[in-house]
Every structure is written in C-alpha cells, then in structure tokens.
Amino acid sequence: MKVITVVSAKGGVGKTTLSANLASVLAASGRRVIALDLDPQNALRLHFGVPLDSIDGISRATLSGEPWQSVMFDGVDGVTVLPYGAVLEDDRRRFEAHVDHNPLWLAQSLQTLRLDASDIVIVDTPPGSSTYVRTALCAATFAVNVVLADAASYAAIPQMERLIETYAAPRPEFGGVGYVINQIDQSRQLTKDVLKVLRQMLGDKPFPGVIHLDEGVSEALACDTTLIHYDPLSQAAADFRSCGNWLMAAVDAIAVSPRNVA
Ligand SMILES: Nc1ncnc2c1ncn2[C@@H]1O[C@H](COP(=O)(O)OP(=O)(O)OP(=O)(O)O)[C@@H](O)[C@H]1O
Ligand SMILES: [Mg+2]
Asked: Which of 115, 33, 142, 140 is nearest to 81 (CA)?
C-alpha cells in the first residue's frame, strides 16, 4: 500500500480537485485506488457520484466501531471512495480528540483494510495545520503540496514544509514531497512571474507538475464527476494525467529505495 497525502498551507487551492483527479488517473492505469477524505467538509465524494444525502464515512464508522469496509463506495472511474461522513458538531469534536490522541490512527486504520503492496490510497486533507494533517503525514508514503502561483501561496510554503519535516520526514518509509502548482493561467504576467520565482525556490525539489486553470474543473464537479471523466481531452485533464504518471513512478520507486525520490 502506498499512501499519497495531499496537503496545502492555504485553503481553496485545489487539494480536493487534485486528489479526485489523481485517483481517477491512477485507477485508469489499472491500480486499485482508494480516495480517502480526511476533511470535515466531506467534499471528495462529490467528485465520484456518492449520493449527496449519504451520511456514511470514516468519522462515523470510527466513532461507532464499525469496519471501514462498511463505508466504502464504488465511485466513478473505478475508484473506491472513503468519505469523511456527516457528523454533528459534538461527534466531530469527539472524533478529532480520538485522532489527536493517537497520531498513528490513520496508519493503523488503513492496515485493517489489508490492501496489497501496489494499492494506492490518496488522502485529501483540510488546509493548514490540524490533527487531520498530522495523522495523514504520519501515514504518508509521499506528500503532495498544492500551491497557487500567487504571493500568498509562495509565502506559506515554509509553514507546510515544517509540518512535513516534523511528521512525515522522520519515518523511514516516507519517500518525499512533490509540489503541484494549480490554476495556472499563462496569459497573466503575474502568473508567469510567480511561476518563475516558485520554480527557482523549489530548485531541485521534486515537481510533479502544473495544472492549468480550466472551467471544466467546476463543470465536472457540478456533474458529480472528475475532469478526467468529464472532459478527458482538456488541457487540465492532460495535466492531471502527467502529474499522476509522475507520482506513480515516484511512489513505485520508494519500494526499491525509500530515500531516492526526494
Ligand atoms: N485547475 C483548476 N481550474 C479551475 N478551477 C479549479 C482548478 N482547481 C480547482 N478549481 C476550483 O477551485 C475551487 C477550490 O478547489 P478545491 O475545493 O479542490 O480546493 P481545496 O484546496 O480542496 O479547498 P479547501 O482548502 O477548502 O479544502 C473549486 O471551486 C474548484 O472547482
Ligand atoms: Mg478540499
């Protein structure tokens, strides 16, 4: 099992969109892929056609002691979806206290799924530092840090780097972090300038790619599906595919030599 944890210091940069489309790309290549939502917004499932009124998910299952297998959905594109679930405020706080008490909660819960070595779990997280990000980084084989080509994202990069250094990097099975720059609009001079600065800042750090700004992304979500499914010939779908292929090669290399990819 390879766990790809998708994080960002800032909110609204496209983590959930990227998680869903990467899951779709990797499933299309024949891998078993689980898209796991660790964000109380419970939005990842919306990309996979899980019914809007469904309240099931890992938060409720954890609190009630039910196996995660009972809250798995068969999503579009052959992706298995583990939603966060819908919980009342008191239950959410109980769940967070439970996770906070044991940072290895996610890693241990994933073990109960008895996945094969080649199976991939993509974990979507809320922005910034939280108990969710901590447990997701403690389970990660690889982290994907999503940024926008803007000054605020640029300034926030060190914050997420510190979290990754603290929770993921010390573990021998952690393979490294890759940066994805989302919502690129090459017609804007500011985008070009920030992109240049970002590339300089990232230097030789692994760089799965850029994703172009594409209105098909929100149209796909409105149709309860991924862009890969909705408009496979679009520029952003091609970007997601190349990012997914880069990532698959990166996580597969980790089994051979854990520290070679970063
Ligand atoms: N490449 C893109 N082109 C156009 N719109 C995009 C792109 N990526 C994401 N979006 C849009 O940006 C908005 C935020 O995306 P998303 O919900 O995936 O971000 P997020 O980082 O998961 O947010 P949060 O921090 O709240 O969890 C959504 O409306 C989404 O449709
Ligand atoms: Mg999100």
From this structure: 33
- For residue 177, the CA-to-ligand 1 centroid distance in Å is 20
Domain ranges, residue 170: 2-256
User: Please, which pLDDT band fits residue 5 given cuts at 50, 70 and 90?
Assistant: very high
In degrees, rounded to 5, the angle at the alpha carbon of residue 89 between the alpha carbons of residues 83 and 93 is: 85
Is 262 a member of any domain?
no
Q: Which two tokens stand for residue 105?
A: 């909660």
Query: Residue 230 falls within a domain, yes or no?
Result: yes
Residue 137 forms part of a structural domain: yes
For residue range 151-196, list pLDDT tens digits in order: 888 889 899 999 999 999 999 999 999 999 999 998 888 888 888 8
Total tally of structural domains belonging to the chain: 1
Mutate to test the pocket of ligand 1, among 17, 22, 214, 219 (most ligand atoms within 8 A of CB): 17
Which ligand lies nearest to the CA atom of residue 14 in the structure?
Answer: 1
